[in-house]
């Protein structure tokens, strides 16, 4: 059973999401928060698998709430935004969110996203990665080379660059003439070596370290 926490300051929005989620046999809504402070408190107390987090809330916004939740728990956060390229989305991913969804997303996409994040993957489809990172990586200041990257082999650096480019494991396998299972293993080992939570954090690190830059191929 996937335990979900809803964090949104609009009661009707929470009710709408709850009605969708509770109709599924494998998802249970364990709590609701009307602001960021409540979201942080409930996440620590209830330890849900996934938090659906509105980015704009009173008292404490979704960005800071996400940062606090990720710092203190292993709870995963999906950011909810009105626009698919919200100014705060990139910052939310840097804060530790595992992905984002637009509020008017179809119910099936919402359910899929929750299941994806609950099993430990990042909710960043390749097409979304390309658009999102292409837009917000431009905001990154001077790259800060990370010494952690020294732990990677040449092949792992190559794979990481392709992840940052927005390729799926299957696409990476095709590009490098590997099996999909081997590509997935490479990605998993890279995340372990670099101590990142998921694919979203791996993409962020690739850009912030200067390994890849917007527009590179």
Automatic annotation (TrEMBL):
Key words of the record: DNA-binding, Phosphoprotein, Transcription, Transcription regulation
GO molecular function annotations of the record: DNA binding
Domain HTH luxR-type: 145-210
Domain of life of the organism encoding this protein: Bacteria
CDD domains: LuxR_C_like (cd06170), REC_NarL-like (cd17535)
PTM-bearing positions, type 4-aspartylphosphate: 54
InterPro entries: CheY-like_superfamily, NreC/VraR/RcsB-like_REC, Sig_transdc_resp-reg_C-effctor, Sig_transdc_resp-reg_receiver, Tscrpt_reg_LuxR_C, WalR-like
Coiled coil: none
Residue span(s) of domain Response regulatory: 3-118
One GO term of the biological process aspect: phosphorelay signal transduction system
Pfam families given in the database record: GerE (PF00196), Response_reg (PF00072)
Record protein name field: DNA-binding response regulator
Native source species: Actinorhabdospora filicis
